[in-house]
């Protein structure tokens, strides 16, 4: 159990990883740049930005992504309504951020 916030964990390794959220410790250093991470899996995902590796493939189109979160966000483009309309052209987007990027 965490002595900072009382969150309980079934494995000691999970508690140790959680404690880093309180201490700010980031022991997993990227050997390609200055970034460091509290979780080893976040480092592994980050390393893909240097290699260009894209292991998460969309099953609806040919796009691929370096991390699962970006794939999940992308999948919404296939299923969501495009409610964000550009005021300069006919383009419509399912995500507000996509519309902002389009309008730049």
From TrEMBL:
Localization, per the record, is: Nucleus
Which protein, by its recorded name, is this? C2H2-type domain-containing protein
Query: GO annotations under biological process?
Result: regulation of gene expression
What broad class describes the main subcellular location of this protein?
Answer: nucleus
Q: Name one GO cellular component term.
A: nucleus
- Is Cytoplasm tagged as a keyword? no
| Gene3D superfamilies in the cross-refs | Classic Zinc Finger
Species name: Meganyctiphanes norvegica (Northern krill)
Q: Which GO terms describe its molecular function?
A: DNA binding; zinc ion binding
Instruction: Indicate the segments forming the C2H2-type domain, all copies.
Output: 1-27, 28-55, 56-83, 84-104
Top-level taxon of the source organism: Eukaryota
Question: Per UniProt, which keywords does this protein have?
Answer: DNA-binding, Metal-binding, Nucleus, Repeat, Transcription, Transcription regulation, Zinc, Zinc-finger
Q: Does the keyword Disulfide bond apply?
A: no
